[in-house]
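Let's practice the habit of predicting before peeking. Look at the sequence and jot down your guess about where helices and strands might fall. Then scroll down.
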Amino acid sequence: MNILQICNKPPFPAVDGGAIAMNNTTQGLLKNGHQLTVLAITTPKHPVIYESLSKEYIEKTNFQTVFIDTSIRLRDAFFNLFTKKSYNIERFISVNFTKQIQKILTNENFDIVIIESLFVSPYIPTIKSLSNAKIVLRAHNVEHKIWERISKNTKNPLKKRYVSLLAKRLKNFEINVLESIDGIAAMTKVDKNDFTKLGFNKKITAIPTGYIIDNEEIDKTVIEENSIFHIASMDWLPNIEGVDWFLNNVWPRINQSETNSTLYLAGREMPDSYFNLNIPKVNVIGKVKSAKDFYLSKKIMIVPVLSGSGMRIKIIEGMALGKVIISTTIGAEGINCTSGKNIIIADTPEDFAEAVCTCLKDSEYCDQIGNNAQKLIASEYSNDIISKKLILFFEDLKAVD
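Done guessing? Here is the structure:
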């Protein structure tokens, strides 16, 4: 098949969960012999780093980008209030990006066009006007659901009202998009069910992101004992919300126990406020040179996500590297895991703190959970397995008149 993959950010280098998911799709399609063109939006938050791109990658993907300034502007956000449009989506609309799609579709015929996330769906009318390709939404999340959950957890009445408005408009846009696509490849069964409830009655499947497994043996002697870590892109609101919840409600309880532990906070776009926290035994690192090396150097991984939708790629990464992971139910949503076997689920500050303290005191228990997690990824989330499922879905969709 000849496939056009349209991305809301550069998928390579894979610097966050969304980019990892997109790049894994890219690599899986190429490995299975399909022809691919990757077109990506670059933004101030997600620039393209051409020095990191190999000549082979650019040639195999016919990689192309268009810059769009998606920066939030108070003036634009204010005047958007007097419309019925979603400000979340409006920031991704660009004449230049439309022209680039037109240029690609004029010069080449495609069997499948992958829309990576809702944020590039405004370009569907342009695609349909120039191509007979089947259009598939690779739904990383049910976007409005994230904002509904954030609104629910927001205490400030004025902010709560505004976030609720954003969620409502995003939901209306999301529902309208469902009428214009041919299929949905959701990341989770939960998201698949949500799209069905929203009225989507065409071909839909739940296919998680895969993990490109490295069979290199893990050196456990480099792991810092009694270390707790969180790593995530800190320009995503649910991650900030989760870290704040952990610091305010869970970390004090852990410190009251007799465990001697250190918390490490890592990730790109770390807000300046975190570097000024001055909380004992909390080390704020920010961006790390190698996420894998950081994972391998620490013991207990926390994913205290309270909002969000879709699938946490960082959990898949952590499991693949044999980490014991403590997550909320929402954080682990969409992953076929079992609490107490290959992950630990805790939803209250008391339970989360107790889970961390248990892991700090019992290294053998940590290793058991981590080993089981690694086996789960190898058996169910290998990118080779996931890619074949995605390709079968595309072929089935293409066969439909």
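How did you do? DSSP finds 16 helices and 13 strands in the chain.
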